[in-house]
Amino acid sequence: MSFLVVEGLVVGYGEARVLHGVDLSVAEGEICAILGPNGAGKTTLLRALSGMVRARGVIRLGGTALTGRPPDAVARLGVAHVPEGRGTFMPLTVEENLRLGAFVRRGGREVEDDLDRVCSWFPPLRDRLGQVAGSLSGGEQQMLALGRALMLRPKVLLLDEPSLGLAPLVTRELFRIVQAINQEERTTVVVVEQNAHLALGVARQAHVLETGRIVLSGTAERIRADEQVAQSYLGYRV
Amino acid sequence: MAGFLQQVVEGLGAGAVYASLALALVLIYQFTGIVNFAQGELAMFSAYVAWQAMAAGLPFWAALALTLAVSFAGGMLIERIVIRLVEGAPELTLVIVTVGLFIFVNAAAGWIWTFLIKDFPNPFPRGALEVGGVSVGFSTLGVLGVVALVMGLLYLLFQHTKIGLGMRAVAANPDSARLVGIRVGRTLALGWGLAATVGAVSGVLVAPLLFLEPNMMGGVLIYAFAAATLGGFDSPAGAVAGGVIVGVAETLAGAYVPAVGSDLKIGVPLAIILGVLLVRPRGLFGRAVVERA
Amino acid sequence: MTQVEDAGVDARPERRRPRWTPTGRRRAAVAALLAAALYAPFQLVPFHVFQLTMVLVYAVALLGLNLLVGHAGQISLGHGAFFAVGAYTAAVLTHGPGLPYPLTLPAAAVVAFLLGLAFGVPAVRLRGLYLALVTLAMAIFLVPLLKRFEGVTGGSMGLTLPKPGPPAWSGLAEDQWLYFLALAVAVASFALVGSLLRSRVGRALHALRDDEGAAEVMGVRLPAYKTLAFAWSAMFAGVAGCVYTWVIGFVSPDSFTVNLSITLLAGLVVGGLGSTAGPVLGALFVMFVPSIAQDLNEAAPGVILGLLIIAVMYVAPTGLAGLAGRLIRKIPRKE
């Protein structure tokens, strides 16, 4: 049963079109990887899903149309987007950053529990709750971004290049946590990743995006197995 | 020595007024990256609203409450109607639009209330407190108290409420704020409303000291600019400290530097603005260079 | 002007090249305007001649401001101060040493230029709104400063001066003579700025306005051009101020409050930033709209000006000049 459905999605910045009719469907509780080379439109696809860029076409989340809604409205429907560059509120403290993740939720017990839960997933954050977020290392900021997104208790988690600029060990840990969250909470995850190997390791479905079109879709195993195809589309070894 | 301290006290009183207007400027700058040249005129307009309310028979404090409410709504309205449309425009456009607002509000006040000066009652009792040969007017104390109160309330709002947290998030990273579900447009309007309210306080504080007339805030605005520049345009606490420093510096320069005297005091904020911008553009308490690329 | 003049922009291959090319139209318009300007003082009553003279004075001031704001993209909220400095230079030199009035013009130009240069040097390090702040503060500071140096400036009372009289050979009345003086200065100023903008300097200024970063990459020496833009701009304001003194025969600090600076900027914005016609249209606006509105209410000029500035920034950032240009282009072309 498809939970997140995208049909004929077209996005253009001014004259230049970035996405030319993307179709995508993601089942509830599944991790879906979007792969592809630089400039394929992966980030734009995520930005369209969360309403950060205007898009034409259909985006539906469990029957609710998302197209045309502003990002704050999309967030209130339970879509958490960890953007490119992590979107940290630099001058604010780590705790404030996390609490902002739960901004649209009614405060109270549950939020406090979630704060605790996020801290147990990312122990380094617990020690730095009072610290200014701008002073965190890259890996810690990525944890913070993920933690902030989880504070929404999202139905859908959109991750943009979580591995960017991080040490392999840190990245692997992050993906492990994403997988754990997906299994525990049945959160649907759409992850955009250049590091196909990592993404295919956690994803069930995968789509390859090239110059604004989906050129290959299938289960992660199939994509991984189909090394020839992947190599010719992705331009690098899987 | 007592004479010197007396001057410092006078300066503190003036500085508190500058601080409150500077605070309003900084609030708007933080949210929108706009330096609002019309801030002083909005404060002046608020003072007229208070005057009108009192002329209609309201007691001072009721008139003040009404004025603050009207100013808040007015500030939000201006953001929604005027500023929203030029959001993200080049700096030149933003400056020109707020200058247009300056001219409009100034003239509108003149149209409604004429350019004749009006007497504005001082809410604080006459007389002064004598401390070791220095006399501190109740009016000065009152002004300091009100500004401290405003500061305290803003601190509580920003540090200890959800709305305040949302406002700081918008100031820090508007895109990210949208992604966590904050309605950024509304928050910006809220910021303008808040700034107009803080500005209204400064208008109501200034009116009894000067005379109420449409050009009342012109000079004060320059001092407030100097205060905000000195403290750092992105630091509310800095703006207040800057205001106090500018007030004291102005009074001392007027009293002890013969070349300055009372007529050239306005040169003091000019010198401060120039000096700060050339030596330390981010101000004393600013986080980073304030220029937005 | 029967020949084809403009080769590039408006080429329409399927039609014969129209006679009325943009450049052709523009030249014709300038010629017609000049002819009208030469003819006007003989047809109008002295008061209207005086008003037109003031339009020319403001046009020169706005020309200078346009160089800075419209072409170089810098902000000045204090150009009235340079205007005042030019006016006072002329007044003081006439009043004290009794300098003949033609010599006060270069003197005012030089003083304003140097002052602009002095402000332009720190201005190099300031961007946008800081420049606005500093220039605004300068304009506000000037008034008490003029009052302070009473011995030279006449203090609050100001200085009253004889107006330049027409030479006997001209057969002109005083108001007509003043008008032609102002016209000569205005035409020379516009010609000077025109050639300046067509040179490398103009390109450098536009590069500065459109993208400072790119300008620097292109090798435009930013600090030098920013400073010079300020100085030239101040110079034209000073020249306008000098002619103002000739025409009015009186200067006082209260004629040069910050309102003047703001009105000048407003006039330019309404007239059209960065266009040639902008300063002229702006000057007409500054001269006539407030005085007409004044009849309605003392505050009406400000209300109208404020609303117009805001409206212009939304609807027509190119001002009246841009609107006029659009209208002219809509007129069907002669075949």
Automatic annotation (TrEMBL), chain A:
CDD domains: ABC_TM1139_LivF_branched (cd03224). It comes from the Bacteria. Residues 4-236 form the ABC transporter domain. One of its GO terms (molecular function) is ATP binding. GO terms for biological process: L-amino acid transport. Keywords: Amino-acid transport, ATP-binding, Nucleotide-binding, Transport. Gene3D superfamilies: P-loop containing nucleotide triphosphate hydrolases. PANTHER family: HIGH-AFFINITY BRANCHED-CHAIN AMINO ACID TRANSPORT ATP-BINDING PROTEIN LIVF. Belongs to the ABC transporter superfamily. This is Branched-chain amino acid transport system ATP-binding protein. It comes from Nonomuraea wenchangensis.
Automatic annotation (TrEMBL), chain B:
The chain crosses the membrane at residues 12-38, 58-82, 94-116, 136-158, 188-210, 216-233, 240-260, 266-285. Signal peptide: none annotated. The keyword Transport applies. InterPro entries: ABC_transp_permease, BCAA_transport_permease. Keywords: Amino-acid transport, Cell membrane, Membrane, Transmembrane, Transmembrane helix, Transport. GO terms for cellular component: plasma membrane. One of its GO terms (biological process) is amino acid transport. It is a multi-pass membrane protein. GO terms for molecular function: transmembrane transporter activity. It is found in: Cell membrane. It holds the Pfam family BPD_transp_2. The keyword Membrane applies. Belongs to the binding-protein-dependent transport system permease family. LivHM subfamily. This is Branched-chain amino acid transport system permease protein.
TrEMBL record, chain C:
It is found in: Cell membrane. One of its GO terms (cellular component) is plasma membrane. InterPro entries: ABC_transp_permease, LivM-like. The chain crosses the membrane at residues 24-42, 48-68, 75-93, 99-121, 128-146, 177-197, 228-250, 256-273, 303-324. Keywords: Cell membrane, Membrane, Transmembrane, Transmembrane helix. Residues 1-23 are annotated as: Disordered. This is Branched-chain amino acid transport system permease protein. The lineage of its organism: Bacteria, Bacillati, Actinomycetota, Actinomycetes, Streptosporangiales.
